[in-house]
Design goal:
The complex is a heterodimer of chains A (about 575) and B (about 160). Chain A is an alpha+beta fold. Chain B has helices at about 1-15, 15-80, 80-90, 120-125, 130-135, 135-145, 150-155. The chains are: A alpha+beta (about 575), B mainly alpha (about 160).
């Protein structure tokens, strides 16, 4: 019986074997056929895509954690061509809600270029405008009339946003839609903030999900800027420019012990959310941040550096007396006082108090070329301060040996003529006097945060141009000068040191006789300086004298600072220091 | 005894018995192959599902990060200097003047210091899983070999 079926079994097994082998053969043949290779090539683009991931741009905060530059959602609006049912409705809706040209959109989506599957219609659409279209798309989802916005795609992404508008914009800078930072922090730290874009093959195959890249966002930066102080500074600056009829102005507030810039206000300012207004607001060669980019002849504020050098080198003491005849002859040229008068016998303190050009020119001559210029070099004039903002200008300090240096420059440089310095250079140099001889590096970056770790910047001493004793002596002289002169810079209850600077403006043929630059540099409290303030009003029309326009601005600024920085009057502070 | 041996040999060599053995063996291989294929398909399907879930979660993380950034900017808009000043003035406040201030000595007062944004949670996070669930056998072996016995022994 079994032998009877053995042949049939064998036949059946043979046929099944042939069938199985045939299947395997076909499997192999299909897999290796030219058609299979062609299919692999054809489906290649659908197995994934090359994508460039741009990390979210790092945020910028002030020293108290207030956001100065963040990111907000905007939408890219495009169409997936294969999903379009009603091109007329898409063209109509996008023209009505997004302001696009109907004919242009209709032509784009009905007659696309060969091989295109997706078309970007527009980008950077605000969420409220996009929401209107998204809601309309949902309403038309099952519309019986056949109207449809199927195929319209809304792709959200981030765009730079500045919640404070124009506040501190000269320091922060701005970012274009292409993601590149311009000016200030945005340009200086562009690489840190932008992170590193990564281009990778992103597989559609879920089994290769682990190959999806993790893109770390750009570093977060914390600035030394205090938002409240910055707002007060801009407020004081704007009102001062209006009150005194100045063309423009600059105020810098720095911590003289650390070099941290607490505020930096200049004009003009621009809301970086609308950076397309740049050319209108900054026509021609208008600097984006005068505080670091525009060198000018600061005038008499430079007398404090001349006096610092003279005291430090032992050329003079505060009690040294000179006779001011109203004129001094240096290098073949006569140098006169600001009022053209003769002030008779003066101590060095008197020279500073009355801001006597003749006296300071005499001091410079007594110091000699080498000594004088060595001190000015050490104070950093003619060199970049290295502040961490893009666009710093070096200024100009002519030195003996330069083709355009003449002996008279020694006399004029002593009172701030014939030398060009930026406000940041002057305030950095002044930090040496306020900070017991130690000149600190001015900086705007307080800390960088990356991968959850905060890295704080440390204070950098960039020089010791004068001794501690000289710094103390000069500070005392300047404090006495302000007090004796009953300066408009004084704030009741607070000991302050400072110096005005009224500078004529150089022109092609000499100096403008009618317009001036009014400056003031000052700090306080003198025994423990917490703030160092620099004021510059350009071409004030209310008065040409810094003592009448810049000194009151300093007082206004200090009155705001002592409140914002919780600095009690000296009597209270000194009385409670021991407690 | 010879009869018994003869019967046993006959039984062993019976063709139908040999066929049945082959069929049994074939079925065993078939069942094992099917099991392996089934397990492979199951694992592959689960891996694909997990991969898809990872893709979706990554998209979700990306969306959440974007939304967070957007919300943070919206919050900053609402608390900007200009907005806060306008709100304060509307509530009847006015800027403080130096003469308005009374200074009081507060023992132990620490002045405001700049913000610290370091993420402490990132460094103090402990996995809820015990090492048994995270260590490979090799890791465990290395740990046992490199850890002094006194340390792991503990009090008894």
């Amino acid at each position: 019986m079994r032998g009877q079926f053995a042949g049939r079994y064998l036949t059946l097994a043979f046929l099944l074997g042939i069938f199985g082998t045939g299947i395997i053969f076909q499997l192999v043949r299909i897999q290796t056929s030219p058609e299979a290779q062609a299919i692999l090539v054809d489906v290649g683009p659908y197995t994934g895509a090359w994508r460039t991931y741009y990390p979210a741009r790092g945020e910028i905060y002030d020293r108290n954690g207030n956001l100065l530059a963040g990111n907000q959602t905007v939408y890219e609006v495009g169409v997936t061509l294969s999903e379009i049912d009603d091109p007329h409705s898409i063209a109509l809706a996008t023209s009505v809600y997004l302001g696009l040209d109907y004919d242009e959109v209709y032509e784009q989506i009905t007659d696309p270029p060969e091989g295109i599957f997706y078309i970007v219609l527009t980008d950077y659409i605000t969420p409220d405008r996009a929401d209107q279209l998204i809601q309309l798309q949902e309403v038309l989802l099952n519309d019986p009339s056949g109207q449809s916005l199927d195929g319209l795609v809304f792709q959200p992404h981030l765009q730079r946003s500045y919640p404070e508008g124009s506040l501190v914009s000269n320091v922060v800078g701005f970012v274009t839609r292409e993601g590149r930072g311009y000016y200030g922090i945005e340009e200086k730290y562009n690489n840190l903030l932008a992170g590193v874009p990564v281009t990778v093959w992103v597989p559609s195959d879920p089994n290769r999900a682990e190959e999806l890249p993790d893109i770390p966002p750009g570093a977060t930066l914390i600035l030394t800027i205090d938002r409240e102080i910055q707002a007060a500074t801009e407020d004081v600056l704007d009102s001062s420019i209006q009150t005194y009829g100045a063309d423009s102005g600059t105020i810098i507030v720095m911590d003289p012990q650390t070099g941290e810039i607490l505020s930096m206000a200049t004009t003009p300012r621009m809301d970086p959310n609308h950076y397309s207004d740049y050319a209108t607001i900054f026509p021609g060669e208008t600097p984006y941040n005068r505080a670091i980019s525009q060198a000018y002849e600061p005038g008499s504020v430079m007398k404090i550096f001349t006096m610092a050098g003279a005291l430090d080198s032992g050329t003079v003491t505060p009690e040294t007396t000179m006779f001011d005849s109203g004129v001094i002859w240096v290098g073949g040229w006569d140098i006169h006082n600001w009022d053209g008068g003769a002030w008779g016998y003066q101590t060095m303190t008197g020279c500073l108090q009355h801001s006597l050009n003749v006296c300071l020119a005499w001091v410079a001559v007594e110091m000699g070329n080498d000594n004088f210029y060595a001190y000015f070099e050490n104070f950093g004039f003619g060199h970049l301060t290295g502040i961490d903002l893009a666009g710093e200008a070096p200024g100009r300090l002519k030195r003996p040996g330069d083709g355009d240096w003449y002996q008279v420059d020694l006399g004029t440089n002593a009172f701030g003529q014939g030398i060009a310095a930026t406000p940041i250079q002057v305030i950095a140099a002044a930090s040496a006097i306020a900070n017991q001889g130690r000149m600190v590096s001015p900086h705007v970056l307080y800390a960088m945060v990356q991968n959850g770790q905060q890295h704080n910047m440390s204070t950098q001493i960039i020089g010791r141009p004068i001794s501690t004793e000289t710094a103390r002596t000069l500070t005392a002289m300047l404090a006495v000068s302000l007090q004796s002169e009953s300066s408009l810079a004084l704030v009741p209850g607070y000991s302050l040191a400072g110096k005005t600077g009224t500078a004529q403006i150089p022109t092609v043929g000499g100096y403008d006789l009618h317009q001036t630059n009014a400056s003031f540099v000052g700090w306080g409290p003198v025994d423990d300086p917490q703030f160092l303030v620099y004021i510059w009003l350009e071409r004030p029309t209310a008065s040409p004298w810094a003592s009448e326009v810049a000194a009151p601005v300093f007082r206004q600024m200090v009155e705001r600072l002592v409140v914002l920085m919780n600095i009690p009057p000296d009597a209270i502070r000194l009385a409670t220091n021991g407690q | 005894m010879n009869n018994v041996t003869h019967i046993v040999q006959n039984v062993r060599q019976a063709p139908w018995r040999i066929q049945r053995q082959w069929i049994g063996l074939f079925l065993l291989v078939l069942v094992l192959s099917a099991m392996v294929a089934g397990i492979y398909l199951n694992v592959t399907a689960q891996a694909a599902l997990a991969g898809r879930a990872i893709q979706l979660l990554k998209d979700e993380i990306s969306d959440n990060q974007r939304i967070n950034a957007d919300l943070e900017t919206q919050l900053a808009d609402l608390t900007s200097t200009e907005a806060m000043e306008a709100r304060a003035l509307a509530l009847g406040f006015r800027p403080v003047q130096p003469e308005d201030i009374t200074y009081v000595v507060v023992p132990g007062y620490v002045p405001k210091s700049p913000v610290d944004m370091s993420d402490e949670t990132e460094h103090t996070f402990d996995s809820p899983l015990t090492p048994e669930y995270t260590q490979s056998l090799f890791d465990w072996l290395v740990e046992r070999l490199t850890t002094p016995s006194g340390v792991t022994g503990g009090p008894r």
